[in-house]
Amino acid sequence: MNKAWMGLEIAPEGSMKNKIHGLGLKLLARVKPSEIFLKSISKEVTSVQVSYPPSLDPRLVRRRLRHIAMSGTILHKKYLIGSVTLLPLTTAFTVLPLPNIPFFWVLFRTYSHWRALQGSEKLLKLLSNHSNPQTDDADESNNNKPEQNAQSPTCVLLPSEELYKLLGEASEEGLDEETIVEICRLFHLNKNDVLKYRNLV
């Protein structure tokens, strides 16, 4: 499927394949950032580090993450079932002398919802073994099972003064592109993805 998509991308301007590629980009732009975040959490992940401004209560941050994980589990399970149900119906378009765009789109969305569902369940597991660096020192002396805790998957919340300062530069209209690029550089984020979704956040 990746080879087919690359073939559409390099198609001549104005051709049918080029128009299909443009339509695909518009559809992909409608995918929510939370889905991309959940898809990035694979089963192999043993720890997730979340940076947040120190002005926020860490309990609020953790509660928000739990909400994203729980709502993701519910929504993507529902959408996964719906996508699987649509797959047999879209195969009917194979009789047309055109690329079966509906089938490939539904197939892609089925895979995406499955990955996001897996990520949601993994994030919930990480949050259940939540580790806060501000309380690690206090807990270390009372820790009777260091090996077990070291192997347990965790979600670590880290307050970031740098992020707080950058967010403090925001105007009423939100962050400008220069500030977003700097945040992406500091936290190793994909600049293009963040800029694409900044109006949706």
Q: Based on Cα principal axes, name the global outline.
A: flat
| Fraction of residues in helix | 55-70%
Mean pLDDT: 79
The description of the largest β-sheet is: 2 strands, parallel
Order of strands across the main sheet? 1-2
| DSSP strand count | 2
> Proportion of β residues?
5-15%
First-residue to last-residue Cα separation: 30 Å
- Name the structural class: mainly alpha
Radius of gyration: 21 Å
Low-confidence stretches: 131-150
Number of helices: 10
Multimeric organization: single chain
Name the helix and strand elements from N-terminus to C-terminus, one letter apiece.
Answer: HHHEHHHHEHHH
Describe, in short, the structure shown:
With 201 residues, the protein is mostly helical.
Question: Would you give an account of this structure?
Answer:
- With 201 residues, this protein is mostly helical.
- The chain contains ten helices and two strands, in the order H-H-H-E-H-H-H-H-E-H-H-H.
- The chain has helices at 2-9, 16-28, 33-39, 58-90, 101-128, 133-140, 146-151, 161-168, 177-186, 191-197, and strands at residues 47-52, 154-159.
- A two-stranded parallel ribbon has the order 1-2.
- Helix 3 packs across helix 5 (101-128) and helix 4 (58-90) runs antiparallel to helix 5.
- It is flat and about 60 Å long.
- Residues 131-150 have low confidence and may be disordered.
